[in-house]
């Protein structure tokens, strides 16, 4: 069984390494950026960058839910339903209360299993499209990664608009 993780190329410079299949050195723990992106039948929401710490229920209420509410209301008026998965910030009683108080319709945590196979395809489809729209060669730092993530969302929006 071939295991490419064991391949190493020792070279004097990048050009020499390129002669040996262009193996590139990677950071063991690259910088990460957490994002939230809502998907609706009419496209995707604005991208929410959740950059500076763990996302708990309060950050979710303060930073994510208003974006979903604004987008849903702008696109659908008062005739739409919000649904989320079983992540802890989503299922917290105060998050659920906020959703019940603000969204015109809500499929609450007790009515949707956290690993619903019916919606996994949507999740994977959006994630796959998002990842393919990022120019990973330009994402060399946290700042450029965030810039590329924002550009990817704009590209997805353009494609949705062209399909309509």
TrEMBL record:
Tell me where the signal peptide lies: none
MF terms (GO), sorted A to Z: nucleic acid binding
Q: Which domain of life is it from?
A: Eukaryota
Entries under Gene3D superfamilies matching the protein = Ribonuclease H-like superfamily/Ribonuclease H (3.30.420.10)
InterPro entries per the UniProt record, alphabetical: RNaseH_sf
Q: What is this protein called?
A: Transposase
